[in-house]
Every structure is written in structure tokens, then in C-alpha cells.
Amino acid sequence: MFDDSESIITFVVAILIAYAVVLWLGSIVWTFRDISNRTHDGWAQSVSVLIVVVFSLPGLFLYLVLRPQETLSDIYERRLEAEALMRDMPQAQPTCPSCKQSVNSDYLVCPNCRTRLREACANCSRPLELGWAACPYCTAPGPSAGAGKSATTATSQPPRPATRQAPPPPRGTLIESKAPGTARRESESQPR
Length: 192
Ligand SMILES: [Zn+2]
Ligand SMILES: [Zn+2]
Prior knowledge:
Blueprint: H1 2-38, H2 42-66, H3 72-92, E1 118-120, E2 127-129, H4 147-156, H5 162-165, H6 172-178, H7 180-189
Antiparallel strand pairs: 1-2
Bound molecules: zinc ion (2 copies).
């Protein structure tokens, strides 16, 4: 009877020790993998693993408190997002060179200060940059083309009125309401 109970106790203790050893080894392996995902610094990796090797589970809790918050892939993704944001910003927000208000890329004039931003193409009336020598859509001479050239091409390409086809700027309604012509029209419509 005494031998039986002693062997049972030995068995249970052996299982507990084996369980603790497996837990200890597992936490060491897990810590090594986790710290490898968070830093390439060999010194930090060695210290983290050593803490768990020496202190076991309390060391693991200590490591969880002290480990770097972000993994390397988190940092990489954050950097990619920041770069994408930086790349998109100048294209998404073109501004007026005079008053710095944001404008659309197809505005002919700034709706805020009336600075000339683009020239409508004489042939297809699309908005052209002032520095362009030719219209990229219909190959007509652009705003910066020489005056002599435009005289020769004027015979081959009859100029159409650009103002008729030019799309009205969406934000221009605010400015137009201040213009004297529209103000008079508004005052005429007001009396009932
Ligand atoms: Zn402006
Ligand atoms: Zn054109």
C-alpha cells in the first residue's frame, strides 16, 4: 500500500515536472519567434530570451510588458501608408499659385482671386497648362506656342468660341453672385 502511494506521488511529480519543462521550453521558443518579428537587434533578442530562460513564466510576463509594441510588419505597413499619402497629396490638392486656395485640375481661372490658371484650347476648348506648346488632346497649338505659328494655323483650323464650351467652375457660383451683372439680375428678380 505504501509502495503504491509513493509510486503514484512520484508519477504525479514527474508529470508536473515534465509539464513545467514543456511550458518553459515552449515559452522560450515563443519568445524567440515573437522578438524576431519585432526587432532585428541581436542584443534585444538575446536579453528577451534570457529573461524567459532564467525566470520562466514570470520572465514571460516581464517580456510581454517590455517588448516593442509594433511588429516589423506593422512598421513596414505604416511606412507604406505614409509614403502613399505623401505621393497622393500634391495631386489630390492642387492649389492656386496666388492665393493658395485649393482648385480643381481643370479650372481655367482661380474662383477665389481670378488668377489665370489654364487656357482653354482654341480647337477643342479643353483646359491646357499655360506652359504647354500644343494641346495634347487635339494637337492644336497651345498657350505658349509662338504668335507667328498661330497666325499660319489659324487658316487651317477655324477657331471656335471657347467660352461657349468651357465648363463653368463649380465653385464659381460664389464669385458670380458678387459680380455686378448677376447682382443686377438678382435684384430684378427680387421684387414681387
Ligand atoms: Zn487664387
Ligand atoms: Zn485641343
